[in-house]
């Protein structure tokens, strides 16, 4: 269950500055919802500080180098690989191939470079259908096994 939580943390972490805005500004919830549902090129205008924070949090949480350092530190501390980190690693691996260069490419080698693989955008309609259908099938299979 913890691995599942760590699988969603990379996308939630970059929303922290927007969550702060949502809590402490009059139109914050509107901005947060607009940002979360934006298509490429239609993101709401944000202050330079919030733009930089969301950008760098995205980069940090989608970097295999950062995840590698965290994995190495946890391994040295625990003396073994901490299995829940597979959630974070799976998120990075999936995002590398499901984000286009136009919309949040995953910078797998950040902070060395911002380069990200130009993959198939996750919000491509046929891919979204296939993705949610496959997740539904897996959920049903897991539920039936219990």
Could you provide a short overview of the structure?
Keywords: Membrane, Transmembrane, Transmembrane helix. The protein is built from seven helices and no strands. By secondary structure, it is mostly helical.
Commentary on this structure:
The radius of gyration is 17 Å and the shape is globular. 64% of the residues lie in helices and 0% in strands. The longest helix has 21 residues. Helix 1 crosses helix 6 and helix 2 runs antiparallel to helix 3. It has seven helices and no strands. The chain is mainly α and 146 residues long. The protein has one domain.
Tertiary shape: globular
**From N to C, what is the helix and strand string?**
HHHHHHH
**N→C terminal distance:** 15 Å
Mean pLDDT: 88
Number of strands: 0
The low-pLDDT segments are none
Treating each run of at least 4 consecutive H or I residues as one helix, how many helices?
Answer: 7
- What percentage of amino acids are in beta strands? under 5%
Largest sheet: none
